Amino acid sequence: MKRRLLLLGGLGAPLLARAGAQVEEPLADSIRSALSASIAQAAPPRPRFDDPNARVAYLRWLGEMSERLKKRKTETQIRIEFLETVWYEAKRAGLEPGLVLGLIQVESGFRKYAISTAGARGYMQVMPFWTRVIGDGNASTLFHMQTNLRFGCVILRHYLDREKGDLFLALGRYNGSRGRAEYPNAVFAARRQWLLPGER
After folding, report:
1. Which tens digits make up the pLDDT trace of 141-192?
2. What would the pLDDT profile of 89-105 be if each residue is shown by its tens digit?
3. 129, 115, 93, 86: which is closest to 15 by C-alpha?
4. Cα R_g (the chain), whole angstroms
5. Is residue 200 part of a domain?
6. Number of domains making up the chain
7. How many of the other CB atoms lie within 10 Å of CB of 168?
8. Lowest CB count within 10 Å: 15, 117, 169, 200, which one?
């Protein structure tokens, strides 16, 4: 597993971490259109619940994850907004929030302005070519929290569908290391830290 250099935007301080490098592949027009539509649907990441039990479960998750993330994101409001957005975008893409948090931990170490040597950006280390393929072409928006998380979740969902539900292969494709065990195993290990006791 390669260690790649990450830079914190504005600080220029080098930090070692893993970072992905999705490979640009041709997409069918129908897939490109569906992915573009998924990226374009803007909505605030505030969930609404008809079921009070679902709301209680969400608030429990939010409180527990906030406590676990406190050392990495010390400002309460920023931490809560980040977790609300992770939960919203993960659920919107049909992904488990714990998996997305594990992927973010491995990819960027929860650094919003992380840039890999391959050029991947932000929390979920999204390659800029995705903004041209399914977005508006403005790669700088990948440093916007919700945009980065939305792209990352939509891309991971795309790879999961492409790999017929095989998460191991989908994670490898996300990282640009399909078929090798190091990256998926690192994400699976990190994911365990972001599950509630009953989910493990």
Report:
1. 999 999 999 999 999 999 999 999 999 999 999 998 898 999 999 999 999 9
2. 999 999 999 999 999 99
3. 115
4. 16
5. no
6. 1
7. 16
8. 200
